[in-house]
Design brief:
Layout (H helix, E strand, L loop, with lengths): L10 E5 L5 E5 L8 E3 L12 H15 L7 E3 L20 E2 L5 E3 L2 H4 L30 E3 L17 H4 L8 E4 L9 E2 L5 H6 L2 E9 L2
Parallel strand pairs: 7-10
Antiparallel strand pairs: 1-2, 3-10, 4-10, 5-6, 7-8, 8-9
Length: 210
């Protein structure tokens, strides 16, 4: 599968009317505080719970040179002591690998004014993650969340048993290449093969809240 790496500079040229050129230093981008995982732990919807998912975010960030921040997975849980994904990621703003702001605050992030688009949903290495235009679609992204970033009520499982199951249950997923980035539909199940069935690969979002 081909993956595209974006490389950009921080120096630009401003051409004046006289034909001379002046070097203009562009404002530095924000530090990376958001990414879409390049891979999952490999066990379907079993991420080792929230702690395991957070550790996966931290591991990927560290390998990319961004391990000095505290990274958390954008995932909700259900039942007693349920957790809302939106409450796990700080208050913003958040920037992707290229320094592009994808959300200024929690309200913007969960509104139609969010800054997400396919070309901005980059991995921790700055790569695009395949969508339906690739041979293997990987746009289903695990969240277990409603559109506002809140957890679903107890009852129908939307979180693969709070991210500990690769067999029973199902997960709510978003589409990383569309407006409904955090809540689009349910997966077929929690096994990796079932996540593949609707265009996923056990990937999830990571945010640095601090």
């Amino acid at each position: 599968m081909s993956r595209t790496k974006y490389i950009f500079g921080i120096i630009g040229l401003c051409v004046l009317g006289s034909g001379s050129a002046v070097v203009v230093a562009q404002a530095p981008p924000g530090p990376m505080t958001f990414f879409l995982t390049s891979n999952g732990p490999g066990n379907g919807g079993d991420l080792g719970g929230l702690a395991g998912a957070d550790a996966h975010c931290q591991m990927l960030a560290a390998a990319a040179g961004a391990g000095d921040r505290t990274w958390r997975a954008y995932l909700s849980t259900q039942g007693p002591n349920s957790v809302n994904a939106r409450d796990r990621i700080g208050t913003g703003p958040w920037h992707n690998y290229r320094g592009v702001q994808v959300g200024g605050n929690l309200d913007q992030l969960h509104s139609i004014d969010h800054g997400f688009a396919f070309e901005r949903m980059l991995s921790e290495e700055g790569d695009l993650i395949a969508n339906g235009t690739f041979t293997q679609n990987r746009h289903d992204t695990l969240t277990g969340s409603m559109v506002d970033g809140m957890a679903y009520p107890a009852g129908e499982d939307m979180t693969c048993n709070n991210w500990t199951s690769s067999s029973t249950g199902k997960a709510r997923v978003g589409h990383h290449d569309r407006a409904n980035w955090n809540s689009a539909h349910n997966s077929q199940g929690c096994a990796l093969e079932q996540l593949w069935g609707t265009g996923g690969d056990g990937l999830f979002y990571c945010f640095a809240g601090e």
